[in-house]
């Protein structure tokens, strides 16, 4: 009896030893492959693909009002009039949206592309502004140096003006010397009593915007008008809030 049992035990032992590593290797490989597949899936799905598909501005009439975020995901938004953090100290927009005329949108996207090549992007404080909001602003600051008289309307009311700054790749705003809607000489383009870095930041914004057809006003470093959209009609529609 003993002579039969011993070789059997040895055979079972060797069989077990031989099979074990194979069994261990197979699942390990599968897990590795699975992990790599998941990782590839994650890295291949950039942030840009999140949300609904972008629309194209091709064939959109230049004078049509468009919601900018439907056409690009490369902008940053900090719509001040949808908060109480503005010179009115009142929330005058029901929700934060940036609407402009299609021709303004095209020029903004081109300017932003230029800036992104240098590691920056445009952040918005304000875009199209309904005419009624312009009237409200005029009641508080009836000074044409800072607020356009609603009698003739602001280019913001026409969908051709934007209030912007620049942010770096981490989303931090560049130092422009004053905050948005700072009504004083320090916000003027011709005020040079600022650190070189601030002057360089303002210059980068101004030169890029001018290259894409925008012009600035002397008293506000953040305000840009698109030349070709400046003569549009004053509008007063309110955008939908989801
Ligand atoms: Zn403005």
Bound molecules: zinc ion
Strand residues, percent: 5-15%
Strand order, sheet with most strands: 2-4-5-7-6
Question: What fold name goes in the CATH topology slot of the largest domain?
Answer: Muramoyl-pentapeptide Carboxypeptidase, domain 2
Please give the largest β-sheet. 5 strands, mixed
> Which CATH architecture of the largest domain would you pick?
2-Layer Sandwich
**Approximate helicity band:** 25-40%
pLDDT averaged over residues: 84
Unreliable segments (pLDDT under 50, ≥5 consecutive)? 1-46
Q: In a nutshell, what does this entry contain?
A:
This protein is of the alpha+beta class and 242 residues long. The chain has helices spanning 2-44, 102-117, 131-140, 196-211, and strands spanning 65-67, 76-77, 99-101, 121-126, 161-167, 214-217, 220-226.
Characteristics:
242 residues; alpha+beta; Muramoyl-pentapeptide Carboxypeptidase, domain 2; 2 domains; 5-stranded mixed β-sheet; two-stranded antiparallel sheet; 4 helices; 7 strands; 35% helix; 13% strand; globular; binds zinc ion
Written description of the protein model:
This protein has 2 domains: 2-45; 54-229, 2-Layer Sandwich (Muramoyl-pentapeptide Carboxypeptidase, domain 2). It has a 5-stranded mixed sheet, covered by helices on one side. A two-stranded antiparallel ribbon has the order 1-3. By secondary structure, it is α+β, with helices and mostly antiparallel strands. The protein has helices at 2-44, 102-117, 131-140, 196-211; strands at residues 65-67, 76-77, 99-101, 121-126, 161-167, 214-217, 220-226. A hairpin with a 2-residue loop joins strand 6 and strand 7. The longest helix is centred in the N-terminal third of the chain and has 43 residues, at 2-44. Zinc ion binds next to strand 5. Zinc ion binds at residues 126, 156, 161, 163, 223.
């Amino acid at each position: 009896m003993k002579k039969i049992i011993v070789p059997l035990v040895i055979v079972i032992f060797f069989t077990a030893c031989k099979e074990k590593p194979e069994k261990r290797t197979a699942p390990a490989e599968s897990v590795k492959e699975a992990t790599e597949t998941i990782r590839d899936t994650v890295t291949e799905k950039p942030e840009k693909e999140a949300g609904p598909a972008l629309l194209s501005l091709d064939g959109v009439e230049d004078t049509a009002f468009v919601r900018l975020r439907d056409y690009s995901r490369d902008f940053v938004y900090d719509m001040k009039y949808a908060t109480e953090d503005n010179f009115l100290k009142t929330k005058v927009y029901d929700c934060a949206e940036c609407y402009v005329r299609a021709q303004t949108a095209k020029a903004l996207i081109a300017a932003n592309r230029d800036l992104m090549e240098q590691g920056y992007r445009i952040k918005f404080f304000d875009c199209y502004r309904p005419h009624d909001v312009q009237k409200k602003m005029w009641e508080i600051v009836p000074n044409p140096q800072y607020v356009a008289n609603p009698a003739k309307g602001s280019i913001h009311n026409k969908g051709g003006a934007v209030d912007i700054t620049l942010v770096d790749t981490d989303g931090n705003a560049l130092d422009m010397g004053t905050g948005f809607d700072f009504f004083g000489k320090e916000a003027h383009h011709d005020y040079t009593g600022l650190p070189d870095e601030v002057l360089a930041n303002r210059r980068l914004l101004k030169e890029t915007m001018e290259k894409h057809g925008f012009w600035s006003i002397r008293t506000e470093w953040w305000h840009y008008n698109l030349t070709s959209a400046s003569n549009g009609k004053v509008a007063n529609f309110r955008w939908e809030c989801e």
